[in-house]
Amino acid sequence: MGDFKEHYEAGKSVAVLAAVAGLLFTLNGGGDFGEGVIVAAGIGAVVLATSLLPDIDHQASKPRQAAGRVGIVTVVGGILGLVIFVPDIVDQLGLIVTTFGITGNPSSLGFGVLVVGGSILLASGGEMFDSLTTHRGFTHSVPFVVFLGVVTILVTWHLSSYGGIFAVFAGQNGVLVGVAAAIGTLVHLGVDSK
Q: Taking the model in full, what pTM does it have?
C-alpha cells in the first residue's frame, strides 16, 4: 500500500513514458509536431492525475472531507433548481403521487415529494456515502479503471468540439487520453499491490 509520494513518483515516471508514446503515436498517425506535443502534454497530465485519483475515497482526503458540504449544497440546489427552472418535472412528480389516491395541487404534491426525499437523503446520505466510498473500494477496482477510461474519452471528445487547442483531442487522440486515464489508475493499483 503506497503513500502519496510513492503514487506520485510512479505516476510521474509512467506519465513521461506515456507522453513520449503519445507523441510518437500522434506523429505516426499523421499529426504534426505541434499536435503531438499537445496530445503528449494531455496524456502525461492525465496519467499523473489518475495515478493519484483512486485515493479520493480515503477518509483523510480533502475532496472526501468536502463532499459532505458539497452534498448538502447539491441536494438543496437541486430541489430549488427543479422548482424554479423545471416546474413541469415537479408537476409530474405530483401527478405520480395522485395515482396513489392522494389529492391536491400537483405542484404542491411534487414539491412535498422533493422536500421529503431531500430530507431523507440529507439525513442518511452521509452513511450511504461512507458505505459507497470505503477506502480501497470501488475506486481501487478494475471496473473503476474501465469506467474512468470511458468517461475520459467521452469528456475529451466533448471538449474537442469546442475547437481551439482542444480540437486535437478528437478521434483517436481522445481515445489515447482515455487509455492514459486507465493506465494512470492501473499505476495506482500496482503501487498499492506491493
A: 0.62
